[in-house]
């Protein structure tokens, strides 16, 4: 509380400082005849170096103008220069200029203008959204910088209808990540996960983002595989000035930093997300478990000694987080070619410790009848290296060439020590999970823009993407002992070594994924009629092709005892698996291969699309865009069964996807929009692959289903939007979606633990309302209010899934069977991961004395985390209120210092079981009454404090 009060005091002190100092001149510049904004018009205060260029809406802002009377000079190519004398600027106040320029009387023979319009400001994004035909929302680099969001995952949750799962996966309109498409620079991104169709947004650092646009309605130009939204991330293209910037951030997390934590050792350069060669599985191991397990105990033990004895844990102190960013921008000319380069290098090393309360219940007639009770000491150390390297070559006003490369390397070392009891069985339990995960993502693209004539434009993109994910040597072990009674001294813990390997008890897991994607896209646009018209009719056309190849393999080895090895299994974790204990003889240990043939697979996906769309204007106020997109997809999945490669899936499907977007201009500031589109949702390789993966946190198996079908979706959207000023917006959007054969998770009705798969439900619906407000106060009498802006959005969403009476899914042996749901599960429920409401709000202040601050708020409604059935209740993720506070100060335009506090309230992350099955979790989660509910997992992440210093070297403004 003292820290919070001190920060708030600092914020209000900052406001007081902001009232004094120079003044501001802002305004708009338009064409005197057409009233169109003059983008790029130059505004200069005579006798000073203070100037600016007008943005896409004609607006400009001149900060730090000395108090007094000045002459303002406004100029633009082919327009008469205007001088405005006697412009009075008062200390701490804003002077507003709204003016128009007249065209020159004589024609120019040839004018070549080199420059790029701003796309990363709030005004630019609002203007872009206003002019789009589909319904969309977005966030600019300018707003991201104000919020001090570290990555795309944190930034995008400011967008209406968007929430985040596990701090990295995006949900739009209550629909999970599988229903959202993600594109980086207009190329579809590969999935960053093995088990789900998901893109991990925490891989994209915020300081490389130019803007993010979220399309809520479909169009012919966009991929058809979506239902929630299409997220387009645009990285920064070219600098408007030469600069070198270095930023250093230190982070302190309550409950983690300087705390004593348990970790384990990994060889290699873990701080760079890399590992040593000794963590990989030796090529000497037989490829198939059937061959390995026919060997003798002694022979298998010899192989076991090839695995390093790296089980020992150690105590350490969690260090403060460290982040380093280096940004470079350069512009120069090679002959007549304008060349620019933007390079961004990010490095971070962060820590997270949580004490997680975990309970499993018997789920009989009495609530909170505990079966197992644990406390997880979970410590994770994460490293990330990110590189953005972009080149732009402007050969002429009609031909641009770009080369963009994005690389991310992520390493995560996680240690979990689970202490607790199997209450019913009367055992104390201590489990260990020692895991290292590495992810690499590379995308590189070459694109060209051609202006074939005043009426026709053409652009193309060719790209290559690679995703790699490795889990080298994930070690898991379970110890247990009889729970002592009375004054009885506790016995020693003994490791559980079953006769056959299983993922719960004792073993080592290795997996690797490699996915390669080749893409080619060509897009064209042709204007009909006079190109000088403000909104001529246009025809758009294009093709998109993608080839995706994935290889996934997993190996699992379990330890078992030969005869009675209790003396060894009661030993210290660091000595149990010493080479002298792996003898394969009586009283010693050996290993078995628990891998199944289906634990590895190869996937191939060929995707081709073509589209055509056109505009139809109904007078000056109404415009309709009609589009048609056709998508052909061929999805294949292969796996080896008894040394024979078999084709498990071969789905060839062509789907027509019509779309319609209609806009009616009520006025220059108001639009009404209607949209219809047909879209689809394909199963991912992992959802099809019939291998079983154990989730340590869920205590559940996850397996694929080769019988999955492509889901088809019909989307309706309606939106009213009002733009009071260039940087203000009020909008209300309603939507309705109908799904045929939606892909949902399904809890298999097994009597042996939890096992999830993916199935096609019969149908489902999703509908709701969204409200967005962006409000400033530029005409207020108070200087404080003039520099204040409010951003807020709220969504109310409802959904319903109708499973039908029968579903197709795998049984415990992996064979597809038909499940009759009678007496097994509810056939109607909300869609998984769907939140009934979302609220985001932000208060931003930017003063003339280079102080700024913002306060941000976020909350989502309870949503299904794990689908249940009549035997195991559904688990919900519960709401939590999140408040962030950020303060920054600039010094002489070269140094900026930022203080950030995330998750100020530090409310618990809570997953609760709907024991009474009424579709909601009540406040009473401890009662044993029949109508009570039950907490499954509960923990606090800890409030997070960061201090950043960013310095710009050698900054030089370049006039385009």
UniProtKB/TrEMBL annotation:
Membrane is among the record's keywords: yes
Signal peptide: 1-20
Sequence ranges assigned to domain TonB-dependent receptor plug in this UniProt record: 135-229
The organism's place on the tree of life at top rank: Bacteria
InterPro entries: Beta-barrel_TonB_sf, CarboxyPept-like_regulatory, Plug_dom, Plug_dom_sf
Main location: membrane
Gene3D superfamilies: Carboxypeptidase-like, regulatory domain, TonB-dependent receptor, beta-barrel domain, TonB-dependent receptor, plug domain
Keywords: Cell outer membrane, Membrane, Signal
Pfam families, sorted: CarbopepD_reg_2, Plug
Subcellular location: Cell outer membrane
Keyword Cytoplasm belongs to the record: no
Protein name: Carboxypeptidase-like regulatory domain-containing protein
Species this protein is from: Dyadobacter sandarakinus
């Amino acid at each position: 509380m003292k820290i919070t009060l001190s920060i708030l005091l600092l914020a209000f002190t900052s406001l007081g400082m902001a009232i004094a100092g120079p003044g501001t001149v802002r305004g708009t510049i338009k064409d005197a005849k057409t009233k169109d904004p003059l983008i790029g018009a130059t505004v200069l205060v005579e006798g000073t170096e203070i100037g600016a260029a007008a943005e896409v809406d004609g607006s400009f802002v001149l900060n730090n103008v000395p108090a007094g009377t000045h002459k303002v000079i406004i100029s633009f190519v082919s327009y008469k220069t205007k001088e405005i004398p006697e412009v009075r600027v008062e200390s701490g106040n804003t002077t507003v200029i709204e003016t128009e320029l007249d065209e020159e009387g004589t024609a120019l023979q040839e004018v070549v203008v080199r420059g790029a319009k701003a796309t990363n400001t709030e005004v630019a994004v609002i203007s872009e959204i206003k002019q789009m035909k589909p319904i969309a929302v977005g966030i600019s680099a300018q707003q991201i910088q104000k919020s001090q969001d570290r990555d795309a995952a944190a930034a995008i949750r400011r967008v209406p209808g968007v929430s985040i799962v596990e701090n990295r996966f995006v949900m739009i309109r209550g629909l999970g990540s599988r229903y959202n498409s993600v594109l980086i620079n207009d190329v579809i991104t590969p999935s960053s996960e093995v088990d789900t169709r998901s893109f991990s947004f925490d891989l994209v650092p915020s300081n490389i983002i130019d803007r993010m646009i979220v399309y809520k309605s479909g169009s012919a130009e966009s991929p058809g595989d979506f239902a929630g939204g299409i997220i387009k991330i645009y990285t920064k293209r070219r600098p408007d000035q030469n600069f070198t910037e270095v930023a250093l951030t230190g982070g302190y997390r309550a409950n983690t930093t300087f705390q004593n934590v348990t970790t384990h050792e990994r060889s290699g350069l873990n701080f760079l997300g890399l590992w040593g060669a000794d963590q990989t599985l030796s090529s000497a191991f037989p490829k198939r478990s059937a061959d390995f397990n026919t060997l003798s105990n002694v022979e298998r033990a010899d192989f076991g000694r090839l695995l390093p004895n790296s089980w020992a844990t150690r105590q350490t102190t969690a260090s403060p987080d460290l982040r380093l960013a280096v940004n470079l921008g350069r512009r120069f000319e090679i002959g007549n070619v304008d060349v620019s380069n933007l390079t961004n290098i990010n490095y971070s090393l962060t820590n997270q410790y949580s004490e997680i309360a975990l309970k499993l219940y018997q789920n009989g007639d009495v609530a909170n009848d505990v079966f197992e009770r644990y406390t997880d000491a979970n410590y994770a150390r994460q490293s990330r290296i990110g590189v953005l390297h972009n080149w732009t070559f402007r050969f002429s006003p009609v031909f641009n060439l770009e080369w963009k490369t994005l690389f991310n390397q992520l390493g995560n070392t996680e240690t979990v020590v689970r202490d607790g009891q199997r209450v019913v069985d009367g055992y104390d339990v201590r489990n260990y999970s020692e895991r290292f995960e590495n992810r690499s993502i590379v995308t590189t693209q070459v694109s060209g823009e051609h202006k074939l004539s005043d009426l026709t434009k053409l652009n193309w993109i060719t790209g290559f993407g690679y995703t790699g994910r490795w889990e080298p040597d994930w070690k898991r072990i379970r110890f247990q002992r009889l729970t002592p009674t009375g004054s009885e001294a506790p016995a020693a813990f003994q490791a559980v070594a079953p006769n056959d390997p299983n993922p719960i008890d004792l073993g080592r897991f290795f997996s690797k994924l490699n996915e390669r994607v080749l893409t080619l896209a060509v897009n064209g646009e042709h204007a009909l009629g006079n190109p000088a018209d403000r909104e001529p009719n246009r025809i758009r056309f294009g093709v998109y092709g993608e080839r995706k190849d994935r290889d996934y393999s997993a190996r699992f080895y379990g330890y078992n005892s030969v005869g009675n090895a209790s003396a060894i299994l009661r030993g210290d974790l660091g000595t149990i698996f010493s080479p002298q204990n792996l003898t394969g003889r009586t009283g010693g240990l050996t290993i078995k291969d628990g891998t199944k043939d289906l634990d590895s697979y190869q996937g191939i996906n060929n995707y081709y699309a073509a589209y055509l769309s056109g505009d139809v204007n109904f007078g000056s106020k109404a415009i309709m865009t009609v589009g048609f997109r056709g998508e052909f997809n061929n999805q294949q999945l292969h796996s080896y069964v008894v040394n024979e490669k078999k084709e498990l899936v071969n789905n060839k499907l062509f789907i027509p996807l019509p779309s319609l977007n209609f806009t009616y201009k009520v006025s220059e500031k108001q639009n009404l929009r209607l949209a219809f589109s047909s879209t689809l949702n394909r199963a991912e390789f992992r959802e099809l692959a019939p291998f079983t993966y154990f989730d340590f946190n869920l205590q559940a198996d996850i397996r694929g289903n080769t019988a999955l079908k492509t889901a088809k979706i019909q989307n309706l959207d309606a939106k009213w939007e009002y733009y009071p000023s260039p940087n203000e917006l009020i909008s209300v959007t309603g939507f309705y979606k109908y799904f045929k054969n939606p892909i949902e998770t399904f809890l298999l009705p097994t009597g042996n633990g939890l096992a999830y798969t993916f199935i096609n439900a019969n149908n489902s619906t999703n509908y709701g309302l969204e409200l967005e407000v962006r409000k400033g106060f530029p005409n207020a009498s108070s200087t404080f209010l003039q520099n204040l802006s409010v951003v807020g959005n709220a969504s109310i969403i409802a959904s319903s899934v109708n499973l039908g009476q029968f579903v197709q899914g795998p049984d415990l042996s992996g064979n597809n069977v038909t499940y009759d749901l009678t007496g097994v599960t509810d056939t109607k429920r909300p869609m998984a991961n769907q939140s009934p409401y979302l609220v985001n709000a932000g208060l931003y202040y930017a003063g003339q004395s280079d102080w700024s601050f913002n306060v941000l708020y976020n909350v989502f409604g309870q949503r299904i985390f794990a689908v249940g059935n009549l035997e195991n209740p559904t688990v919900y993720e519960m709401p939590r209120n999140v408040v962030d506070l950020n303060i920054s100060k600039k010094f002489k335009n070269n140094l900026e210092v930022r203080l950030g506090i995330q998750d100020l309230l530090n409310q618990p992350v809570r997953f609760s079981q709907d024991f009474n099955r009424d579709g909601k979790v009540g406040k009473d989660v401890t009662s044993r009454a029949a109508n009570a509910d039950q907490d499954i997992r509960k923990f606090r992440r800890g409030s997070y404090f960061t201090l950043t210093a960013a310095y710009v070297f050698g900054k030089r403004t370049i006039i385009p």
